[in-house]
């Protein structure tokens, strides 16, 4: 039996080819989703600030069967219905990371997990401190704790063209863990009254969903109707309906068996992700991000403790929490950051994680559902805080990107115009011959010095 190794585990070291391909596909999809999300948010702001009456009329319009408790507003359908698709994809991503990704190794997982936890605790602490000193409401402590992965990766993709791939992988893994804890916050802290009958039936539906998966039953016509029923029961139970999406995503198998080109989880994620990134999340943004951004509203964001706490939590709390958690973990445990990354890179990504849009808006609606005016102000603070975090992170990433771009240019430099970059001149035969001659000359010099030294000793020992 080999002795246990004390070597520190390197987080996000060299990945296998399937892992790299999966990461690249996920980044491309999230980038497109981020752009669509941004377009929807801008459209919502323009619509709400130019034709506010029609905007409120549309998102407040109710539809759905009231007999089964689903006579909901358009805004509610977007937040509870469409976001269930988003959280379903998040559940698949989380399951995949747990069984086949970075989170499968507890030692390697320690770094992103601790960083994500610190990146959620610190914003809550900042919000709590600001509102304790300013006499504001503590209900919104969870608003600045979430990171919007689509927006963050979109910014990183646009600015960080020359940044190491490990930096993107760090942000992606961090966001998956962040999503998990955001789901737990919604389930634990924003569930008031529970209808145990509806909840029990929803759990029974989830059990049936799981058994059908284990039996290998196939067919969308089986799972889609069952998923809708599970979602409807969860919505009526009092537990936030997006939890149903997460639970079903976690049940999918994300490991490949012999003869499979992709696991069921990968296949379904590939099919559902465009629906989530291209339809569900942008529509949620369209009907949730429309708030008044007049001069007075912007002034209130920076003077009211609740909104100021959200802004500072996103911009300051996220950055300090993630960077501090990562540094402490790497400093005091056996986990080690990828050698390709430098601490300024981590600090830039930590500030980028302050972009909290989708889940932050959702938590803001849940936290202040009884105060529509404050809800809109909280949404404005999320938008402003996310914008400030994006600008600050963009500047840092631009500086780091310029540095890595210069390094790439050095690697491609070919001053002798021989078609081989100078950095690879080590592979030339004449270089090896030259280096061999240098080593031989050094060896001869060492031998001559040794002979002189032995000759000196011999003379010292001569009786004459």
What does this structure look like?
This protein is mostly helical and 464 residues long. It has 2 domains: 13-190 and 240-411, Na+/H+ antiporter like domain (Na+/H+ antiporter like fold, Up-down Bundle), CATH 1.20.1530.10; 422-457. 72% of the residues lie in helices and 2% in strands. It has helices at 17-50, 52-59, 74-99, 106-134, 149-159, 165-189, 196-214, 220-237, 242-251, 264-288, 295-301, 305-332, 343-352, 358-367, 372-412, 429-461, and strands spanning 9-10, 62-63, 72-73, 335-336. The strands form 2 sheets. The protein has a two-stranded parallel sheet with strand order 1-4. Strands 2-3 form a two-stranded antiparallel ribbon. The model is unreliable at 456-464 (pLDDT under 50).
Descriptive terms for the model:
single chain, mainly alpha, Na+/H+ antiporter like fold, 2 domains, two-stranded parallel ribbon, two-stranded antiparallel ribbon, 16 helices, 4 strands, about 70% helix
């Amino acid at each position: 039996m080999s002795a246990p190794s004390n070597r520190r585990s390197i987080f996000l070291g060299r990945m296998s080819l399937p892992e790299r391909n999966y990461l690249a596909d996920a980044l491309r999809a999230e980038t497109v989703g981020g752009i669509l999300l941004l377009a929807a948010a801008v459209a919502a702001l323009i619509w709400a600030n130019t034709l506010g009456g029609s905007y409120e009329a549309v998102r407040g319009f109710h539809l759905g069967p009231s007999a089964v408790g689903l006579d909901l507003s358009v805004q509610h359908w977007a937040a509870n219905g469409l976001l269930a698709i988003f959280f379903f994809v998040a559940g698949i991503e989380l399951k995949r990371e747990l069984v086949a990704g970075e989170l499968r190794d507890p030692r390697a997982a320690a770094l992103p997990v601790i960083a994500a936890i610190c990146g959620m605790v610190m914003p809550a602490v900042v919000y709590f401190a600001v509102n304790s000193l300013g006499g504001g409401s503590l209900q919104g402590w969870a608003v600045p704790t979430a990171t919007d992965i689509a927006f963050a990766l979109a910014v990183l993709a646009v600015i960080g063209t020359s940044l190491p791939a490990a930096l993107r992988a760090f942000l992606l893994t961090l966001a998956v863990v962040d999503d998990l804890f955001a789901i737990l916050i919604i389930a634990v802290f924003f569930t008031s009254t529970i209808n145990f009958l509806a909840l029990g039936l929803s759990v029974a539906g989830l059990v049936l969903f799981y058994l059908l998966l284990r039996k290998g039953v196939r067919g969308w016509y089986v799972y889609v109707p069952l998923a809708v029923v599970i979602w409807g029961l969860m919505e009526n139970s009092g537990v936030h309906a997006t939890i149903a999406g997460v639970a079903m995503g976690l049940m999918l198998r994300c490991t490949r068996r012999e003869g499979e080109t992709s696991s069921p989880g990968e296949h379904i994620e590939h099919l559902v992700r465009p629906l989530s990134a291209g339809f569900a999340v942008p529509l949620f943004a369209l009907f949730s991000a429309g708030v008044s951004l007049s001069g007075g509203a912007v002034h209130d964001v920076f003077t009211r403790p609740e909104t100021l706490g959200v802004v500072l939590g996103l911009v300051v709390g996220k950055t300090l929490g993630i960077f501090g958690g990562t540094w402490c973990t790497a400093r005091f445990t056996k986990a080690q950051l990828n050698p390709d990354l430098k601490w300024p890179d981590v600090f830039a990504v930590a500030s980028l994680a302050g972009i909290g849009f989708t889940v932050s808006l959702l938590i803001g609606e849940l936290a202040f559902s009884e105060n529509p005016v404050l809800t809109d102000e909280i949404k404005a603070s999320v938008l402003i805080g996310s914008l400030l975090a994006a600008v600050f992170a963009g500047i840092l990433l631009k500086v780091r990107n310029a540095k890595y771009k210069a390094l790439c240019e050095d690697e491609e430099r070919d001053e002798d115009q021989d078609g081989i970059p100078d950095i690879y001149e080590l592979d030339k035969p004449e270089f090896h011959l030259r280096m061999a001659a240098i080593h031989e000359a050094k060896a001869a010099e060492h031998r001559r010095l040794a002979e002189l030294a032995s000759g000196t000793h011999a003379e010292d020992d001569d009786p004459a």
